[in-house]
């Protein structure tokens, strides 16, 4: 949310129950990630207990196939997935916005070339690209992030290009140009507030997706490698020990809550950042 | 004579993919003096809005357009020549011409800011302008959607005033507004012209308002200016049959129950204008040569100009025949 | 025989976030066959809601009271199914924007004949024949060819003519026209007004024209009702209302018009703006903007009183005395 909007638009959307739940979960997970060493009963890699213990007072979430505490691994897992998801979305958004703004603003062959490139990348399934990267550079979380960034910038580029194109011909931009505003100032002053909102919404929704995609890659063995405590990899371990439900269920629930939380918040932001619907929400 | 704004032979082509170029304005002439209100009227599709956009430089055009003696260069990617700041535009739809996501005060202050005023000073002056156009003092810290259509149009007018303009082109500035807001916004524009000694091109399809406020009126048909003259004389003795048709189509609220006169036929497709005089297929007074010769806009006596073979250059306006010519 | 449409004490409440708000407040009028009745007013005066109430097209949460007797039946008391049958067949509607009232993807023939075949049970060829006649009636050149075309192929004025033809397809007795010429050029408007005028004479059709344009009223309406804040300010014969208005609001509207001879240089708007839904002041709704208001206007609720033959005004102080 931009600073300017905050006094008006921000206050009331949080009265919406879903947004509140989502925000609460996000705050909760951020705190968990920050305070992991204090919260976790054990280290994520400590093999101190018997294998595959059912949840009990001692091991709230049970233990996994190597005798590690699932609760501790889930808590430490948030330190892997969340920061990487934020980082990934930030990279993709910055790259996409830059490409989209240049394409929308200059038009002509620049626009054509950049958008055909975006189409090309867009058509490429992220998982396949990640597999290709893993094959070329080795299966590492860092390479998975790289692969996901490469496939996720085009959606930002398209969004921003569309916004720039429609705003570029808007009469308020024409009025601003007539007053002597330069192209760059027009972009920064007149178009930025119109672009920032939708991009922020898309980014918020995307954090959830990024968590899902990274977990998916790790699940497939293309991302985080054992023994890292990563939710997707842990779900994979759960799949291998299918009759021991607690091994896969708890990391799965973590992924679910994070993805849902970011979706709720993203949807609410979308309404809140539009001054017209913001008023409707305020009632 | 030094005109504030002078357009000579302006033509605008719209290039469309897979279709012939559409000539929306075809060799139109206009001139405007300081302190003068020029009404520009015509049916929709006649090119009056396009001509308005062309004279301020929003629309690339052929021909010559001069403001304060300097040529108007179409706006490209580069910053507009600061010498052109005196030439501003007010748009039809005040919902589209204000940025929905910026404070009203910031938008009005832009004009000062871009003129080199410091930001606090620009915001203070913007507040003054908003009060000048009749808005409450707290308007500056609100968003456009919090205002009615009439108020928004006042905001848009205030924004142009921040550039200290000597000429405003207003494209249908009141047609999107409610009846009572229409009258007060029109009055505001007239007051500003008189007070600041500006020139105003008032583009409108509402002939009765133009008749009320314009010093001179220009009538456009199918991309051409077909008649120009002092408003009073033009209305009392139109020189062009099209002008007369437009005027007699306006219904009067006099309770007499008189049906307005119908002008048969539609405006032809501007991509395929008729040969000869463009009005001849709909003209009740058309002569055989009208389908062949395209009359230029020529000056008559009394500051009037017309593009019609029924009038003689340099002579006073000859009254148009009242009886319709029999169909041939 | 009574009037074709007799509206008595029509009241419409619209649901808002702050509860129900009155949009039309005790409106009464009647329209005879072959008569053009004009309802004038600014936006928010309740004129469009009146039309919507008669057609049963109000939003779901709206409530009505009063009666609207049409051909002996109360439109407000009808079930949706009965109303659907009346609407389109006995009462038809023409709206402001023909580009939204005509379906952009269907041919003119489909749009014209659909209702005839549904409501009147005509065969395909009979319906087609009537469609050609109708297009000819509304002066569409080359009606045979026009049938195969789509709305986008016509100009705004032609589209409005086609919309009128669609409205006339089932020989309605009453035509509701909501701002039928507002979106059109004056030259085209003149043609549509002439068409409405001719239709009522040829078909004994009753027409309710809703518009804010008193010039349009003056051209076609036989009687005029001026609405303000959901109520009748003044109702009477065209000539009397427009030349000898008895309500300060009517007078204000007429004064705000550009002078017919031009030259006065400024326009005289009514100060203030019309009340929005739910903010109608107590007493006479016009009193905050009225130059003749007396203290009584703030409390009393003036009912229309007869001020001349068929001419009533809801303004007891008679501020404009001497004009009548």
Our Rg estimate of chain A from Cα atoms comes to 22 Å
User: Secondary-structure element order of chain A, as H and E?
Assistant: HHHHHHHHHHHH
**Quick one: how many beta strands of chain B?**
12
| Relevant CATH superfamily of chain A | MetI-like
Q: Supply the CATH class of chain A.
A: Mainly Alpha
CA-based shape of chain A: elongated
Structural class of chain B: alpha/beta
- The CATH homologous superfamily of the domain at 5-74 and 85-237 in chain B corresponds to P-loop containing nucleotide triphosphate hydrolases
Number of domain units of chain A: 1
Q: Report the β-strand fraction of chain B as a percent range.
A: 15-25%
Order of helices and strands of chain B: EEEHEEEHHHEHEHEEHHEE
Keywords (chain B): ATP-binding, Nucleotide-binding, Transport
Protein name (chain B): ABC transporter ATP-binding protein
Pfam families (chain B): ABC_tran, oligo_HPY
Domain ABC transporter (chain B): 5-247
How is this structure best described in words?
- The complex is a heterotrimer of chains A (283), B (328) and C (324).
- Chain A is built from twelve helices and no strands.
- Chain A has a single domain, classed as MetI-like (MetI-like fold), CATH 1.10.3720.
- In chain A, α4 (70-106) runs parallel beside α11 (245-273) and α5 packs antiparallel against α7.
- Chain A has helices at residues 6-10, 17-34, 36-39, 70-106, 108-122, 126-137, 141-168, 171-178, 183-219, 231-240, 245-273, 275-282.
- Chain A has 283 residues and is mainly α.
- The two termini of chain A are 20 Å apart.
- Chain B has a domain at 5-74 and 85-237: P-loop containing nucleotide triphosphate hydrolases (Rossmann fold, 3-Layer(aba) Sandwich).
- Chain B is 26% helix and 20% strand.
- Chain B contains eight helices and twelve strands.
- Chain B has helices at 48-56, 104-114, 119-132, 149-161, 179-196, 207-213, 231-236, 241-248; strands at residues 5-14, 22-32, 37-41, 62-67, 70-71, 87-90, 167-171, 199-203, 216-221, 224-230, 298-299, 305-306.
- In chain B, the strands form two sheets. Chain B has an eight-stranded mixed sheet, sandwiched between helices.
- Chain B is globular and about 65 Å long.
- Chain C is of the alpha/beta class.
- Chain C has two domains: 31-58 and 80-90 and 176-313, 3-Layer(aba) Sandwich (Rossmann fold), CATH 3.40.50.300; 97-169, no CATH class.
- Chain C is built from eleven helices and twelve strands.
- In chain C, strands 6-7-8-3-9-10-12-11 form an eight-stranded mixed sheet, with helices on both faces. A four-stranded antiparallel sheet of chain C has the order 2-1-4-5.
- In chain C, β4 and β5 (73-74) form a beta hairpin.
- In chain C, α4 (108-120) packs across α5.
- Chain C is globular, with a radius of gyration of 20 Å.
- At the B-C interface, α5, α6 and α7 of B face α7, α8, α9, α10 and α11 of C.
